[in-house]
Write a structure and sequence with these properties.
alpha/beta, Enolase-like, domain 1, 2 domains, four-stranded antiparallel sheet, binds magnesium ion
């Protein structure tokens, strides 16, 4: 299965309302930035990372795919998984300028496309190629109702609808106001509306410092918070370790952690309890597997962050024994030949060969930007 073509792409897909915000980010579109890799057996693999649809930055990613990694890939055998990943990830001139960030997420898109090709060549969905499903059902938790930009009354309506109409039993709502007591008030209102049996996680998107996070946790502890995600700056292992040891609320993080080694450092420091790798931000499926196994060996749950909006992670989550649930944000699902689907609060298991990343012609026609 020799690689014969490498075509980068950029899609900017509108989110389902005019704009959404958390404590740190405001976006109107999700960037689907990646590559279509062709082979001499006629198969095409698709892989992508997820971005905030900032076109000039997206072009850095596609330039890296095309100009830096492309020549290293042409003519190679797409079946050579680990050898190809090592060749690209450890290429001296590329790792010199980035073992995280642009070069890393570009490699993520390539690695996902290669796994998509391998699964298609085997005529299997990715979860089956990896070894089969370890659970019959995969619970979905709904993040899309809980943005910080949603006013309190609409937040409550959305949470009730997600449970009563859509069948979710798990929610996540954003926090991270300068005054964390505003977040306490919103959480209490949601808890009162949905009752005691629904799990509610919260996500501060790196906003607070340690004293603010500690003040919040002291007040939130009696409220049954399922996890507190990214309370502080993404790289600050010491502060997360201190917080984790001073509160009974479990700490979740990982969406801004790029490497298996950094995940190990957080886990070794006991700074995280729910491990949240993102296949589009570590260097693809190859590195995701390392992170997930490493967490599982420490008996920590693995709950992916969906930079891919679930298309690849639904495969990884059905397969991996450390995973029992997956985030749900449905913004880009209709761009794919086999869109993610949640019924009664559970992900439907994908069945088509591949990694779930094949774009439809109409998505390409509607949302493409010039690379
Ligand atoms: Mg998050």
């Amino acid at each position: 299965m020799k690689i014969t073509s490498i075509e980068p792409f950029i899609l900017h897909v509108p989110v389902n309302v005019p704009s959404i915000s958390d404590s740190t980010h405001t976006i109107t579109h999700w960037g689907v930035v990646g590559v279509k890799i062709g082979t001499d057996n006629g198969l095409f693999g698709y892989g992508y990372t997820g971005t905030h649809a900032h076109l000039e930055t997206d072009r850095l990613v596609t330039a890296c795919i095309d100009k830096s990694y492309g020549p290293l890939l042409m003519g190679e055998d797409a079946q050579d998984g680990d050898r190809l990943w090592q060749k690209l990830a450890r290429y001296p001139a590329i790792q010199w300028v980035g073992r995280a960030g642009v070069t890393h997420i570009a490699l993520s898109a390539i690695d996902i496309a290669l796994w998509d090709l391998r699964a298609k060549a085997a005529n299997l969905p990715l979860w089956k190629l990896l070894g089969g499903a370890t659970s019959e059902k995969l619970e979905a938790y709904n993040t899309d109702i809980g943005w910080l930009s949603v006013p309190k009354d609409k937040l409550i309506d959305g949470c009730k609808r997600a449970i009563e109409v859509d069948g979710f039993q798990r929610l996540k709502i954003k926090v991270g106001h300068a005054n964390p007591m505003v977040d306490i008030e919103r959480f209490e209102a949601v808890r009162k509306a949905v009752g005691p049996n629904v799990t509610i996680a919260i996500d501060a998107n790196g906003k607070w410092d340690l004293p603010t996070a500690q003040r919040f946790c002291a007040r939130a502890e009696p409220l049954d918070v399922f996890w507190l995600e990214e309370p502080m700056w993404y790289d600050d292992i010491a502060s997360h370790a201190t917080l984790a040891q001073s509160t009974s609320i479990p700490i979740a993080l990982g969406e801004q952690v790029y490497t298996a080694e950094t995940f190990n450092s957080f886990m070794d420091a006991k700074a995280v309890q729910y491990v949240q790798p993102d296949v589009t931000r570590v260097a693809g499926i190859t590195e995701y597997i390392q992170v997930a196994h490493s967490a599982h060996a420490r008996r920590l749950p693995v709950v992916a962050h969906v930079g891919d909006m679930g298309q690849v992670h639904v495969h990884l989550s059905y397969w991996h024994p450390g995973t029992t649930m997956l985030e749900y944000i449905p913004w880009i699902k209709d761009c794919f030949v086999e869109p993610i689907k949640v019924e009664g609060g559970h992900y439907v298991r994908p069945e088509l060969p591949g990694a779930g990343t094949t774009l439809t012609e109409s998505a390409i026609a509607s949302f493409s930007q010039r690379c």
